[in-house]
Amino acid sequence: MIMRKMNGAQAETSRTLQGIGVSPGIVVAKVMVLKRPTWRAGRYHLPPEHIEQEVGRFSQAINAAGQELLRLREKVADDLADALSIIDSHLLMLKDRMIIERTTAIIRQNNVNAEWALAQALCDIKERFDRIDDPYIKERYADIKHVADRVFGLLAGRESDPLDLATGPTIVVANDFSPEDTMRMQAGNVLGFLTEKGGMNSHTAIVARSLAIPAVVGLEHVTGILATGDLIIMDGGSGLVILRPDPEEIIRYQADERHSRARADELDRYIYLASETLDGYTLRLSANIEMVEELPTVLRYGSEGIGLFRSEFDYFQGRRPPTEEQLLSTYRQLLETMSPHPVTVRTLDVGGDKFLNSFPGNKAWFDQERNPALGLRSIRFSLYEKELFRMQLRALLRASVHGRLRILLPLVSALGEVRQAKAIIRELMADLEAAEQPYAVDVEIGMMVEVPSAVVMADVFAAEVDFFAIGTNDLIQYSLAIDRGNQYVAHLYEPFHPAVLRMIKQTVEAGHAHNIPVSLCGEMAGDVLCVPVLMGLGLDELSMRPAVIPKVKRLLRHSSTRQLRNLGEQVLRCADSNDVRAYLATTLPQYYPKEFQQP
Ligand code: PEP
Ligand code: MG
């Protein structure tokens, strides 16, 4: 967040385009612009005797699309878990009722052609997705669209795709690419890609990162601006594209690329070193993840545990909540993989900007909420939908024998919530005991500190829980009254607000006075500008995106406790975030000359 503000996106000029860099890497190469047909479905009325034939044509296209995906799946290497699971999810979409049954019903009810019926079914699905606020879930519509495009192509009798022509050292440009396209690019040795559509969390972006194909998305009209054969520089990290670069620019960017590779190699060294300061003070660096598929990345970057598993993402996958057995298998995998390190599973944190549509009976509480950020969120939701909560907790307790489990309760604002949750856990433990099912008696139960009332009462809470995890993403939102997802007030969302820093300190002190550890798992924990401050405020653990762990560890290993304490004390004296930033701008380059340059 802060680094983004400091680096700032470069302004677009006639020779540069600014998009969203979703997969890092600098490439200098000629582009190939792929104009793929956009499937426009005309409406044709069919005589009744042709209707079943049309339904059959549609089923054949669905089957052929499935065959294509299976063939692609066979070509993808087994260790590319992300890519394989995306193909699997696309195969499942081909069986989705909203696509199959709805399209077939429209063909039969309206006596129309399959293309038009599929387009109508797609409109219905899109409408549903448009009502969702969560950007992550919203981007899942792109997957459905990619699957539907494949079926449209087959209905239209497509035999080959322009992407098949793109092999060799080229950057491909199109309106959009599907995740499967990205996998095919790797096979064709494509160097990078640019698209008009897309976002950071799209599956296309996720696959590009896991295959290390540099990519910039969200470049409006780029297929009209660039022509096949144009030479460009693309920076998949910053999202900058330079058209017709001059020789000096090319040399400069190629040197940048070499430096960033060398930096990454240098950072890799830290993966295997201890997380400790120069004078031997240790701090746990752990990972925030949403899916078990991320475990290989967690291990790759030397994480010392999972500091935050956002369990709600398992509930976003299907039309129904996962079963207890499915949850058990996920939690078991997490615990076994990370053992002996701790795994912190946060119980369902839905509501606010993350809402579920996967409930029996399709209850729509969230639709009726005027102010969802202050509504039936997180622990409040779990205590309202107790059966669902009990199922998750039972799965957690049953998994607890497979490693070191910490259960984390989100958005706690009153003591009663912790006590109710603990009472449910005690009841479930008694049930398991009666059924002679094993569980770990020493499961730790902690709470997120992410609303001001939890900070003010931290000394009281600390006597009731085994650990605190400070969630600064929400703590900033709720203490500064800034909606974390609102672009109009994004400039006021300030991690260095002295109120935020003091709340962190107060929570740390309350936790330590009761001998419980205090971690921080908001975005601040992975921001190198914030990390020295957080270490100075006395946190015991920082949990972050796995890929930034080596960078944070390098900072830690170049720190001394005396300097960190001094930093912590000084920032707490500042009256304003500008003072904090000014202080850091002069102090950090002195303490860490390699990491921070003089302003
Ligand atoms: C937080 O609020 O800081 C946090 C880690 O939780 P989330 O971002 O999932 O709300
Ligand atoms: Mg939160």
Give a nutshell description of this structure.
This protein has 599 residues and is of the alpha/beta class. It has helices at 2-7, 51-75, 81-93, 97-110, 114-130, 135-138, 140-155, 179-187, 203-210, 222-225, 247-268, 295-300, 324-338, 378-384, 386-399, 415-434, 452-456, 458-462, 472-480, 498-513, 531-536, 549-557, 561-573, 577-591, and strands spanning 16-18, 20-23, 26-33, 171-174, 192-195, 215-217, 231-235, 240-243, 284-289, 306-310, 342-346, 404-409, 444-449, 467-470, 518-520, 541-544.
What does this structure look like?
The chain is an alpha/beta fold and 599 residues long. Helix content is 46%, strand content 12%. It contains 24 helices and 16 strands. The chain has an 8-stranded mixed sheet. It has an 8-stranded parallel beta barrel with strand order 9-10-11-12-13-14-15-16, surrounded by 4 helices. The chain is globular and about 80 Å long. The chain starts with a helix and ends in an 8-residue tail after the last helix. Residues 450, 471, 473-474 line the site of magnesium ion.
The coarse silhouette is globular
Strand order of the largest sheet: 1-8-7-3-4-5-6-2
Q: Specify the helix fraction band.
A: 40-55%
H/I helix tally: 24
